[in-house]
């Protein structure tokens, strides 16, 4: 039946004012829906025009944590049996045919931590299994008050379990370490199949109703479809915009699957796995994160969902939005190697069935557009073009290149080269800046090279200690090779002292502004007794700027900032400097005749008196450097901005840059390094971070769970490869040569046998099965 002909309409109901539902389940007749959450457990009847509450199992005063549910499951064979998984690890079985507190038929308190999921067997009415945060899977028979079997997943947490509809005794389990396991209920000691499906925690899985496919959803924002015939193989991958919380295959549609997100995205999407980058249909009614979804039996036109907005919806497929109809038919993308891809939609034409025409335009007719909801959704075609930078691009653009840069580098080459050669510790800051400036220049990043030279000047020769006060002048340093004079502006001091004493000639100094120029090597105070400028400012003389600052290209400076824009730079150098109006200086009074014959006292400083000094603000280098780093980030060079910040060490506290922005730089740069598979460089950057949220990037899923190759039990991990169960060290030996492995050890996650990596490479180049147990091992 076409979607547009469906007569049902979307209906909703607000179910709880005190909390929200975490999961929902349908009975075998698809006439009732159970919703469970931390503060509710209710059953509703599904009507054509709404929902009617039929049972409330949280009604009563004596409630405990076993009523606070993470998941709910309805028996596929008995409409009176429900099971819930609680936050305190309790698995409860409910009988709706009973009254009051007797509805809670059984309570299994065997999980040590939170129970995440529970499900009934598809053909055995008394069997159910549960998965928990403690890493175990429990199998219960409701005719017994204890669990029948316990399966150890060797992971931190089991997030979802599902029975296979194709094989009676097989069930799947997904874990937070990204692995998928297949278990035979009759073999509790070891899983049949185990493989890594995702790079992040896997939260959900679902079996295809007609094909032996298993769909998994993860926090890595992907839904993957695995062919479980023989060795697991990846069939399809769907890319979503957020971590996936639930997936459900659509009945009577082989290639359609529904999903909802854990965060950010409130919609329920239905995907066609053959066109995985845009949803086939979307339901956007919820105003908070969707927590549970289910198709109403074999009806592919009705989807039920519940959300953190405390509502349940019965969605009619005819009311779904079609994102593909609003999508732009053209697209462009920038590749990691500097290439650009462009795609546009192909207009399809079909030849006429009969007839010949003399006009050129009549030889083809345009196909009619497919209506919304058509099963031909996946047949849209587009044409892809790929563009790469021409080798002569940089020379053509007029950018100056040195002889060593005659061969232009693409942007990804510069990024990789700088990531590998830039250093962030191990040397003095001045040496580090000098090295990084050369590396940046080597890879054509002249703006970054100039910035490193500035950092060397500002911070490389000064020692910063708490409270990180600024130096009064960089020219006050002793330098026997170059005697420079520091220029101090007395008019910018807080308040001049009224009593300055007499000048060198015995005259009282005038109240006009004075600029005292003294030899910095001989007497930093100049003998005048004038106070230094405040320590929160830095004054640079023209002589200091000319001798200290070296630029590869003066055109990179504009108004005191390093300019890294795409257009031609201004030639004027607008750096803060001190200029004196010498013509405005008043003539000095002539010395007395009696003083002409006297020798001047030693170390006489020269006093230049002027009538007017222009108001020149104190230049703040830390704000300048902070603005330069933010400008680097704005033009796309977050690499230079972050490496400079890390290299500064404690001096970074002087820069007016917020921690939230720095955290964003860390995440962006680490993500770029991961894209280029620069794992060591990314780890070094993370380790040098001073932000806790960045430091924790290397602390997720670091535990490695191992099984003994002899008995298949989990390894205790107390004494290397020693197994506490079988009292054996056989797992430490190479399954090819039989010797204990000293060095790099590789093993199969399925059978737990391994050995020297060189021996395994040679062996599996000619064989496919394990040399010890015959398992079909999978080595990359």
UniProtKB/TrEMBL annotation:
GO MF term list: zinc ion binding
One GO term (biological process): positive regulation of TORC1 signaling
InterPro entries membership: WD40/YVTN_repeat-like_dom_sf (IPR015943), WD40_repeat_CS (IPR019775), WD40_repeat_dom_sf (IPR036322), WD40_rpt (IPR001680), WDR24 (IPR037590)
Entry-linked CDD domains: mRING-H2-C3H3C2_WDR24 (cd16693), WD40 (cd00200)
Biased composition (Polar residues): 473-510
GO CC term, one of those recorded: GATOR2 complex
Alphabetical list of SUPFAM superfamilies matching this protein: WD40 repeat-like
WD repeat segments: 108-150, 151-193, 195-229
Pfam families, per the entry: WD40
Gene3D superfamilies: YVTN repeat-like/Quinoprotein amine dehydrogenase
Keyword field: Metal-binding, Repeat, WD repeat, Zinc, Zinc-finger
Region (Disordered): 470-510
Family: Belongs to the WD repeat WDR24 family.
Name by which UniProt lists this protein: GATOR2 complex protein WDR24
Source species of the chain: Drosophila ananassae
Lineage: Eukaryota, Metazoa, Ecdysozoa, Arthropoda, Hexapoda
Gene: Dana\GF22867
